[in-house]
Model the fold of this input.
Amino acid sequence: MADLSPETKARLHKQLVKLGDMMGDGLHHEADGKWIAKSYKKTLKALGLVKPVKRNITGINERMAQRVKEVVCQKCSFTLEQTRSGSKRAICLACGAKYQLLK
Ligand SMILES: [Zn+2]
Done:
């Protein structure tokens, strides 16, 4: 996160170290210590150290929909279909040959 002030960043870093120490002691495993791990994750996120892992599935599907229209099976010239949502591979509906259609 680029819009954090240096003061905020310093504070968050300090908090992170403190929470990390507590987790090092195993406090987050105790019944009333669940907030520690939660805060740790939140702090990491606030500092921009954890990037949300989200693939652009819609974009892939759209490009694949276009690719399977352009490409036919090299073995039998039959129609290809995306193997599953979010996949960059397609399978021939006739012979089952698989192709990588997107890089
Ligand atoms: Zn085929």
